[in-house]
Specification:
11 strands; mainly beta; 4-stranded antiparallel sheet; 112 residues; single chain
Protein backbone atom coordinates (compact mmCIF):
# COMPACT_ATOMS: atom_id res chain seq x y z
CA UNK A 1 0.00 0.00 0.00
CA UNK A 2 1.56 3.27 -1.15
CA UNK A 3 1.07 6.22 1.18
CA UNK A 4 2.04 9.84 0.69
CA UNK A 5 1.84 12.15 3.70
CA UNK A 6 2.23 15.89 3.25
CA UNK A 7 3.17 18.36 5.98
CA UNK A 8 4.36 21.91 6.41
CA UNK A 9 1.31 23.88 5.36
CA UNK A 10 -0.01 26.82 7.33
CA UNK A 11 -0.81 30.50 7.37
CA UNK A 12 1.82 32.95 6.15
CA UNK A 13 1.85 36.60 5.13
CA UNK A 14 2.46 37.62 1.55
CA UNK A 15 6.17 37.66 0.83
CA UNK A 16 6.85 34.92 3.33
CA UNK A 17 8.12 31.37 2.92
CA UNK A 18 7.05 27.85 3.70
CA UNK A 19 8.58 24.44 3.07
CA UNK A 20 6.30 21.53 2.35
CA UNK A 21 7.37 17.94 2.83
CA UNK A 22 5.93 14.71 1.49
CA UNK A 23 7.07 11.39 2.88
CA UNK A 24 6.34 8.24 0.90
CA UNK A 25 6.03 4.63 1.94
CA UNK A 26 5.04 1.39 0.26
CA UNK A 27 7.19 1.54 -2.87
CA UNK A 28 10.80 2.07 -3.86
CA UNK A 29 10.70 5.84 -3.68
CA UNK A 30 13.88 6.42 -5.67
CA UNK A 31 12.46 4.66 -8.75
CA UNK A 32 9.75 7.25 -9.40
CA UNK A 33 9.30 10.86 -10.33
CA UNK A 34 7.43 12.96 -7.78
CA UNK A 35 5.29 16.03 -8.14
CA UNK A 36 3.36 18.73 -6.37
CA UNK A 37 -0.06 19.95 -7.44
CA UNK A 38 -2.45 22.44 -5.86
CA UNK A 39 -6.14 23.20 -5.79
CA UNK A 40 -7.39 26.65 -4.89
CA UNK A 41 -10.92 27.20 -3.57
CA UNK A 42 -13.41 26.84 -6.40
CA UNK A 43 -10.79 25.83 -8.95
CA UNK A 44 -9.43 22.65 -10.46
CA UNK A 45 -6.23 20.91 -9.48
CA UNK A 46 -3.17 22.32 -11.24
CA UNK A 47 0.43 21.27 -11.70
CA UNK A 48 3.04 23.08 -9.59
CA UNK A 49 6.36 21.24 -9.88
CA UNK A 50 7.90 17.85 -10.62
CA UNK A 51 11.24 16.16 -10.08
CA UNK A 52 12.80 13.14 -11.71
CA UNK A 53 13.74 9.97 -9.87
CA UNK A 54 17.34 11.07 -9.29
CA UNK A 55 16.57 14.71 -8.65
CA UNK A 56 18.52 15.70 -11.73
CA UNK A 57 15.57 17.11 -13.65
CA UNK A 58 12.91 19.49 -12.46
CA UNK A 59 9.95 21.25 -14.04
CA UNK A 60 7.78 24.11 -12.82
CA UNK A 61 4.55 25.83 -13.65
CA UNK A 62 5.16 29.31 -15.04
CA UNK A 63 3.29 30.82 -12.11
CA UNK A 64 5.86 29.57 -9.58
CA UNK A 65 9.12 29.66 -11.54
CA UNK A 66 11.82 31.52 -9.66
CA UNK A 67 9.88 31.37 -6.39
CA UNK A 68 9.41 27.65 -5.68
CA UNK A 69 12.05 24.91 -5.58
CA UNK A 70 11.37 21.18 -5.60
CA UNK A 71 13.92 18.76 -4.22
CA UNK A 72 14.09 15.22 -2.91
CA UNK A 73 16.02 13.10 -0.45
CA UNK A 74 15.79 9.48 -1.56
CA UNK A 75 17.42 8.30 1.66
CA UNK A 76 14.48 9.78 3.57
CA UNK A 77 11.80 8.91 1.00
CA UNK A 78 10.85 12.58 1.06
CA UNK A 79 10.19 15.27 -1.51
CA UNK A 80 10.18 18.96 -0.59
CA UNK A 81 8.69 22.12 -1.98
CA UNK A 82 10.41 25.30 -0.83
CA UNK A 83 8.04 28.20 -1.45
CA UNK A 84 9.40 31.75 -1.28
CA UNK A 85 7.89 35.15 -2.04
CA UNK A 86 4.45 33.73 -1.46
CA UNK A 87 1.44 35.53 -2.91
CA UNK A 88 -2.24 35.41 -1.91
CA UNK A 89 -2.94 33.58 -5.18
CA UNK A 90 -0.73 30.71 -3.94
CA UNK A 91 -3.43 29.90 -1.38
CA UNK A 92 -4.51 26.32 -2.02
CA UNK A 93 -4.42 22.76 -0.80
CA UNK A 94 -1.10 21.32 -1.96
CA UNK A 95 -0.96 17.66 -2.95
CA UNK A 96 1.99 15.34 -3.37
CA UNK A 97 1.89 12.93 -6.30
CA UNK A 98 3.69 9.87 -7.58
CA UNK A 99 2.39 7.86 -10.53
CA UNK A 100 -1.13 6.62 -9.66
CA UNK A 101 -1.05 7.87 -6.08
CA UNK A 102 -1.94 11.08 -4.25
CA UNK A 103 -1.53 12.38 -0.74
CA UNK A 104 -4.41 13.93 1.18
CA UNK A 105 -3.00 17.42 0.91
CA UNK A 106 -1.83 20.23 3.16
CA UNK A 107 -3.42 23.67 3.26
CA UNK A 108 -1.37 26.77 2.50
CA UNK A 109 -3.00 30.13 3.20
CA UNK A 110 -1.25 33.35 2.19
CA UNK A 111 -2.69 36.52 3.67
CA UNK A 112 -2.35 39.89 1.98
Amino acid sequence: QVQLVESGGGLVQAGGSLRLSCTASGRTFSNYAMGWFRQAPGKGREFVAAIGWSGGSTRYADSVKGRFTISRDNGKNTVYLQMNSLKPEDTAVYYCNTPRYWGKGTLVTVSS
